[in-house]
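FORM 7B: Structural annotation worksheet

SECTION A. Query
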Amino acid sequence: MTGDGPLRFRRVLLKLSGEALMGTSSFGIDPEVVRVLSDELAAVHGMGVQLALVVGGGNIFRGVKAASAGMDRVSGDHMGMLATLINSLALQDQLEQRGIQTRVLSALEMRQVAEPFIRRRAIRHLEKGRVIILAAGTGNPYFTTDSAAALRAMEVKAEVLLKATKVDGIFTADPVTDPSAVKIDRIAYREVLERGLKVMDATAISLCMDNKLPIIVFNIRQDGNIRRVIRGDAIGSVVSE
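SECTION B. Predicted structure
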């Protein structure tokens, strides 16, 4: 096992937004962004961490926007699930180019490109040192990929849910638009729900609260931050009891 310090977490679920793969584009996948991200994930894997990924589909399709434009919400959400599969295959390709065995497990059955999600198989892949990418959300409309991340984290017995964002953690307001926004280093699940903070959707927060799964929200745009979080460095914001 390699690495550059003791690990705080051995098995993690990392939630990436689809937007994280866009780079500066307005939609789609930026190959250079995926390459840089895959380098970081490869370094994390090299530390001996068992890594599960859930990636959103907002860079390709967002069901809610389509619903507001007159499309049926269920159809839109199913299209969003397929978008997450496209992102998952892009990540799998880059990780395998780095010599890392990777499996895409999909909540929608698509055997030609991904394994069906079977909980015991997913855990076995992790135990064998493979990275697993969990695609197609929960397989159900009306549930976000945040909710899928919380659910899958529980199912594969992850020690923590890492929520990758564009900012340095949880703030009292959107720091991009409100310069008076203050960073919150540690907060309880219930307070997140009561204050309506845009960390993850309420279903995901409630699921983590009921099962005492900590959430760490951090900035993925800073190189090396995933490794820092896993080593236990004090970056980002922690949601716990």
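SECTION C. Observations
The chain has a mean pLDDT of 93. The first strand starts at residue 11 and ends at 16.

SECTION D. Sign-off
Analyst initials: ____
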